[in-house]
Amino acid sequence: MARMKASGSRLGSTNPDGATATAVAQTGDPEPKESEIHEKDRCPECGGRLHNGETETVCRECGLVSEAAPIDHGPEWRDREDPNHSVRCNGAPETILIHDKGLGSEIDSTVGSGRIHRQSMYQRRSRSDSGQGRVRYILSQIRRIGSRLSLPTYVMKDAAYYTRRAYEQDVPEGRSLEWVTGGVIYAAIRERELPIRPDEVAEFLREDDATASGRQGILQAYSHICRALDLSITPMLPKDHAPRLFDALDLRTETEIEVRRLLVEVEGKTGGATPSAVAAGAVRKVSKGKPRSPQLNEIAAVYGHSRKTVQNNAQRIEELETDDLA
Predict the structure, then answer these.
(1) Is the pTM of the predicted complex or chain greater than 0.85?
(2) Could you please report the per-residue DSSP string of 240-260?
């Protein structure tokens, strides 16, 4: 009882500024003395004390808002189960380009004690099973080759999606991982109609696969994946290869327009000629003899064709144009 009486007497007492101690007990934040208020905590208008809230710093005397922070450091009261709110609090977004979609943690074996080294070893072993280990390797190669070829992110995501679908159906069983990697990348490239040939993809495979056999392996894996996954990818036309030639050779606008018109006219009439070679031949035929026209070897180097191949396609296009006029 004595303790309760003493407490009651403290609550009823007043401080020198005239404020009751009841307010102090309710807020839990005792008012400091005038001498204890730091200069930065004083109001620039009335000299009163500034109160630091969650997003604003306000003077308790005159109500002046001294500072307003755009970051709310308090708790987040939004409903995470509400479908109208898409809230991502922290961490990187998940991505299909990583085998665990970026949701896992990597145990670094270069730091820590022997226990950390053992945990890192067990983590590597758990990822090296036959299925997941292959998917993990192919996804890492997709990111590497995509970076070297300057592929857009959506193309690499398409390749990763094809990889996961293929291994869910055991499509790549018995095939080289390098060829499967090239096959899914080339499938994504063809799906997005990018003017990149399988030879260019093969250049960035492992050294023993970056040969003509690597190109054939990529095409075989590409055909197998398209059939197994039921991908309806249309063949690329010569006009699809024209934009890359325009960018590489810096052609004039009128030359580009004439090349496009010519490729539309000869579409379907060039037999079994390579589409990129037909596009290069059209550029050669149109730009020959014009000012600022590129040299034959410059046109041939864009897609890696020989000078004779480009010249033969230019002559073939000229013959087709003559026949149409006749």
Answers:
(1) no
(2) GGHHHHHHHHT--HHHHHHHH
